[in-house]
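Task: encode each sequence below as structure tokens.

Item 1
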Amino acid sequence: MPAKAPIKKSPAKAAPSKPQPAPEPVKEAPAPEAPAPAPEVPAAAPAPEAAAPAPAPEAPAPEAPAPAPEAAAPAEEAPAPVVEAEKPVETPKAPEPEPPKEEPPSAPRDLAVDDVNDTTLAVKWKVSENEGTAALEGYLVEYKKENSNEWVSVNKEPSVSARYKIENLTTGDKISVRVKASSKAGVSAPVELENFVQIREIVDRPKIRLPRYLRQTYIKHVGDQVNLVIPFQGKPKPQAIWTKDGKPLDPKQAGVRTSDSDSILFIRKAERKDSGVYELVIKIDTLEDKAKIEIKIAERPGPPKSIKLVDVWGFNAALEWTPPGDDGNADITGYTVQKSDKKTGEWFTVHEHHHQTNCTISDLIIGNSYYFRVFSENLVGLSDKATVTKGVAVIKKTGSSYIAPVYKERELTEPPKFTQALSDRTTTKGYSTKLFCCVRGSPKPKVVWMKNQMLLGEDPKYRCLVNHGVCTLEIRKPSPFDGGVYSCKAINPLGEAVVDCRLDVKVPQ
């Protein structure tokens, strides 16, 4: 049955000589895409489907298999190739992927010298940007001498740190260093120092450590000893150069002693000419550090040039003077003014640390005559001498007279009057007690004490006192019998006054 399907007439008849070769490309083209539907489709039908994958020259081939009825016989034999197309076509196996190639890390970056001295050289670098296909194990360090092509390995095991110190080198040698990154995938390209490095003692930059007290003007007295110790640092031992006011220091004027860590300026006996600006320069090759020290050698100033008594009035005298010609190589800080009575000749200080060149002296005694003198003062002290006034300041008596005022006598007499009355009291048997009151009067009143309107008299149990108007009655070790009303009476020629109180004496239970 399937063989008869292609017998149907085709609308376009092709030449009968070309229907046989057309089925061959049909067998090959549809097989890999859809082998199953091939038997149900006429031989002419699959040709257009196969035209797509077929090359351009073979595209018209599918239209040719529309044979005339005479081609029915060969079409019946077509099932043989169709059966073969139903079999799965074996596809070629894809080649197995090759294992990835191992990639070593990239080279370290920015190799530079970190430190150098007479036996060691320390280098540092930045880590590799790319670690490669395996984890980075570390870095390998090598060096070579200037006139050699042989690289000497420094570390057998890779260094994890990005800094390495090469030790036991020979002083004076010039070496170059290179570094490689290492991993299981391999070793990177090396990074090398640009220039050879000489193994030598590193220069510690010279630096002066000027003490704080020398950062301001250093002042000494004439005749004192000057001993300045200036510490510094530097390696190798720096050269110390002292100058004064920009000129080389005279060894006869000052001594200098320099060690590995300090320089000492020594003046055995200072003079004023030793004052000036001293400069210390510490040098190592082209490196240097400077420090300036201002030294001032001072002494006591001279006295003021002159002094003048300007005016005298009442109890006062006015003075003026001029600054000293010699300030002792230090600023004048003040003046001390003293006075002396012509009768006694003793000097007394009137003003100290006086900053002006004039002053007024007050509180002088009428009828006396005075001399005055002035001392100059600087940071060392007062001048040895003073400038004394030539004239004498005489404090004259005035012609005024004193008239004593007349006062009207006041009447001060008054009768007795109690300013504080007696107060009732309660006491305990056997404990002494006192009664108080205050009285005034002129003339002074007489005071008497009474108990229950009876005068106490000379009874030794009672003691009566009057002090500046305060009246006191002391009752020694009272008993219940001593309780009652006590009265105090004050009497003078102008009258009398009485106050009283009650005293209770309790017996303890």
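Item 2
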Amino acid sequence: MKRIILNIRCELDKVPNIDVLLPQEFARGEELKQEGIMEHLFVTEGRMGAVLVFKDVDEAKAKEIAATFPLFKYFDTQYITVEKYY
């Protein structure tokens, strides 16, 4: 089963209005979780990035979805397609 991993780096301390945007960011993540698209969310040590795992989408759709996050313009994102075996 294919998954798309989004490896995101974002320097949150450089984001203006982070206190407003961060709750919106997590709300969007929760929406994607409820829709069954986002399978996992990991926050990196030091909160300088995140790893998201999307299922049932291709890379083009993953890029489209990623653009809906309020902090997207501050992201440096790498998209990795993987096959889940177990």
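Check on item 2: The mean pLDDT is 94. The chain has one domain: 2-83.
End of task.
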